Amino acid sequence: MTTPQAVGRLCHNATLLIVGGVKFDSYKTGINDFERRSADGRICLRRCRGASTYVALVDGAAIKNGSGKPKRFQTQTGAAAAAVALISKRLDVKK
């Protein structure tokens, strides 16, 4: 599997986010648009426009809620924790 390249510019002055031992770097992707990506590129956290919520993408697909729509999280930390838990659950299933 190849690591996807992050779109945007790395923000060196952003607050460091580490959840479950995974480091998330911040990237500026547009005017007032930022996203955080894990070092391996499998997890991406994005802010929803017009709302103070975040969406977590794992391997390019959003984490879904019960109705099949992308699940929204109130914090980046909550979105990151759900994504890290999903990745570790997938790794446990593969073993």
Give a short summary of the structure.
The chain has 95 residues and is α+β, with helices and mostly antiparallel strands. Helix content is 20%, strand content 34%.
Please characterize this protein's 3D structure:
The protein has 95 residues and is of the alpha+beta class. It is built from one helix and seven strands. The protein has one helix spanning 76-94; strands spanning 9-10, 17-19, 22-30, 33-38, 43-47, 54-58, 61-62. Strands 1, 2, 3, 4, 5, 6 and 7 form a seven-stranded antiparallel sheet that branches. It is globular and about 35 Å long. The two termini are 18 Å apart. The model has no long low-confidence stretch (mean pLDDT 86).
Task: List the keywords.
single chain, 95 residues, alpha+beta, seven-stranded antiparallel sheet, 1 helix, 34% strand, globular
